[in-house]
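Ticket 4471: requesting a sanity check on a complex prediction with nicotinamide-adenine-dinucleotide. Repro inputs:
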Amino acid sequence: MKTVITGGAGFIGSHLTEYLLKAGDSVTVLDDLSTGSLENLKESWDHAAFTFLEGSILDREAVRQVVSGSDRVFHLAAAVGVHLIVDHPLESLRTNIHGTEVVLDACLEAGADLLLASTSEIYGKNTSDRLSEDADRILGSPLKSRWTYAAAKGIDEAFAHAYWREYGLQVSIVRLFNTVGPRQTGRYGMVVPNLVGQALRGEPLTVHGDGQQTRCFSYVGDVIPAIVRIAEEPATRGLAVNLGGLQEISIIELAERTIKLLSSTSEITLVPYDQAYGTGYEDMRRRVPDNSLAGRLVHFKPTTTVDTIILRVAKAMLSTAPGEVHAGAIR
Ligand SMILES: NC(=O)c1ccc[n+]([C@@H]2O[C@H](COP(=O)([O-])OP(=O)(O)OC[C@H]3O[C@@H](n4cnc5c(N)ncnc54)[C@H](O)[C@@H]3O)[C@@H](O)[C@H]2O)c1
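Returned structure tokens:
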């Protein structure tokens, strides 16, 4: 199978690249290295069936050339992370809306199947017990740049769905809920790498708001095989499928567990949202997935616990920056 992964130098994309190379695909990664890195691809770099192209999904001709002759595209390239979205709203909107349209057109022309990476952010402030795929979206004002990521990904889904309905493009969509694991960077506001890094360095763990907001983290190693099965399952065409973790945990509890598991001497500092992200920032109090569609269609059953995730992220950080952190209990 000839596979293209946009955003393959990123956190999830680099794990997907390794997984598909092992499965026997030839994989071409297109990435502009804005948040991804070649370091993420070092396990794949020397593989005979691996090709890397530095370029943007906004470059229509480059995308056409990469996608032509391929069987399928995993479209993961996006402007991701609260800091990036809030600080660069225009660039993020262009990448996340126009870039997806460019990829859709290239797939249509090449006759390639498409897997689109969407997000649980599209549910916005809906705090339902279990968010199913047809749940209502409750978003703040589009003038608040925090919501532009959710708005753009919602448009991406609508675009992809319309290409399926009107042109017959073979499209499947995954809505990822807080996917975490080694290689995720804390630079743009991701909570797990930030807390683990702070705990390992003995710095205060910064928790936004009152810390009572909850999330369900899923491990990248549980999510990647499910993404691939969804791409390969004809019954998912034209659908969006949730992929989330099982364990609901508050951010304050996540910080406490991180400190305990890593035998850190750090304390927890609460930082008001306004201070972290600017005036008027809004967050959602909880976000809990209903994974039953993924269970039915591709037998998705995440198993990695939050504690295991914390330990694996810490171990990976220690192996890449051993001098900067305190090893604590996980040597
Ligand atoms: N990690 C999560 O919790 C999560 C949750 C929901 C959805 N997602 C989605 O999964 C995908 C991957 O996210 P990630 O967490 O790996 O983030 P990431 O930032 O590590 O990966 C995004 C990749 O896209 C690349 N990129 C950005 N703009 C580009 C452009 N114009 N052209 C080419 N490449 C470009 C970046 O360099 C990076 O390698 C994204 O589409 C994201 O929206 C992730």
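Notes from triage: DSSP finds eleven helices and 13 strands in the chain. Leaving this open until the requester confirms.
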